[in-house]
Amino acid sequence: MNFSASNDYCGDGRFAQHSVIMQHIDKLELRPGEAVLDVGCGTGEETKSMAGKVKSVTGIDASEEMVTVAVKTNSASNVAYSQWDARAVGDNPDWRERFDKAVCFFVLHWIPEETQALRSISACLKPGGQALIIISFGNHDDSFFLPRATSFLKSHEKWGAFVQDYKSSLHLWDLSVQETQKVFKACGWAEAKCEVRRHELVLSEIQLKSSNDYCGDGRFVQHSVIMQHIDKLELRPGDTVLDVGCGTGEETKSMAGKVKSVTGIDASEEMVTVAVKTNSAPNVAYSQWDARAVGDNPDWRERFDKAVCFFVLHWIPEETQALRSISACLKPGGQALIIISFGNHDSFFLPRATSFLKSHEKWGAFVQDYKSSLHLWDLSVQETQKVLKACGWAEAKCEVRRHELVLSEIQLKLFLKTCLGEIPLIPAEDYLQDL
Question: End-to-end CA distance of the chain, in Å?
Answer without folding.
Answer: 15
